[in-house]
Design goal:
The protein is an alpha/beta fold. It is built from seven helices and six strands; from the N terminus they run βααβαβααβααββ. The protein has a six-stranded mixed sheet.
Length: 221
C-alpha cells in the first residue's frame, strides 16, 4: 500500500550547530543534540501527532546520533508506537571529510563556491551528487516497504538538511539548478510529500509554518 504521506524531518539543533569547531574534534556521527534541539524534536513530535491523527506510521532514521536523538524525542511526543522503526545509513548527511581542521573547512567553502554546491566533492568526503545516488538506493528499499501488506499510511524520515534536499530532488526529478537555489533547511524543519487521492500524484507541503518554538539554526549539517 502506498502511503498517504512521506514526512521528512531535519534533526534538531546539534552541538555543532552552536559550535562549528566541534567538527574538527568529534566525528560527525557522534555529535549530539543540544537542550534546544531536544525540545524542538518534542515540539515537532506533538505537531506530527496532530497532523496524522490515528493513522498508522513507520519511521526511518539516519544512524547519526543527532538524527537518532531527534527521532527518539519526536516519538516520545506521539502516544502510539510506529509500525516499524528502522535505521538506514543511506540517510546520513553528506560526508564533509574526516575531522576537517577549521582552515580546511574554510578552504572547502571557498572552493565549493567556485565549483557549485551540487558537484563539489569534499576531500575524503562526498559531493551532493553522491548523496543523490544514495537516495536512489534508499528509494528502492522504500518502494519494497510500500509493497508490504502492513505498510503504514505515513512514513516519517528523520535525516539531515542536504540529504532531505537530495531526497526531494530525486523524488520530484528536480534539475541541479533548482537544488542549488535552496538555502539551508532550519533545524527540525518538516516537509511532507502528500499523495492526491484523486490523481495519485504527489505534491510537497510544509505543514508547520509557526516556527516560534524552534529557535532554528541555519547550518545545513
Amino acid at each position: 500500500m502506498r502511503p498517504k504521506r512521506i514526512i521528512l524531518v531535519r534533526h534538531g539543533e546539534s552541538e555543532a550547530n552552536v559550535d562549528s569547531l566541534l567538527y574538527s574534534r568529534v566525528p560527525d556521527h557522534l555529535i549530539h543534540l543540544t537542550d534546544t534541539g531536544r525540545e524542538q524534536a518534542r515540539f515537532v513530535g506533538r505537531q506530527i501527532a496532530s497532523f496524522i491523527g490515528n493513522e498508522s506510521f513507520g519511521v526511518y532514521a539516519s544512524p547519526y546520533m543527532r538524527a537518532l536523538e531527534t527521532k527518539d524525542y519526536l516519538l516520545s511526543s506521539i502516544p502510539r508506537r510506529p509500525v516499524f522503526d528502522y535505521q538506514d545509513p543511506s540517510l546520513r548527511e553528506l560526508e564533509y571529510g574526516n575531522l576537517p581542521s577549521p582552515e580546511a573547512s574554510e578552504t572547502n567553502r571557498d572552493q565549493r563556491e567556485k565549483c557549485g554546491s551540487f558537484f563539489f566533492r569534499f576531500p575524503e568526503g562526498e559531493s551532493c551528487a553522491d548523496v543523490y545516488d544514495r537516495m536512489s538506493a534508499f528509494l528502492e528499499s522504500l518502494f519494497r516497504q510500500f509493497e508490504r501488506a502492513d505498510s503504514p499510511e505515513n512514513v516519517l524520515i528523520v535525516s539531515h538538511g542536504l540529504a532531505i534536499l537530495c531526497f526531494l530532488m530525486r523524488w520530484f526529478h528536480w534539475h541541479v539548478s533548482k537544488f542549488e537555489s535552496f538555502g539551508p533547511l532550519p533545524n527540525c524543519h518538516v516537509a511532507a510529500i502528500v499523495r492526491s487521492t484523486d490523481s495519485g500524484g504527489w505534491r510537497i507541503i510544509e505543514p508547520f509554518l509557526d516556527r516560534s518554538m524552534l529557535g532554528c539554526g541555519n547550518s545545513c549539517q
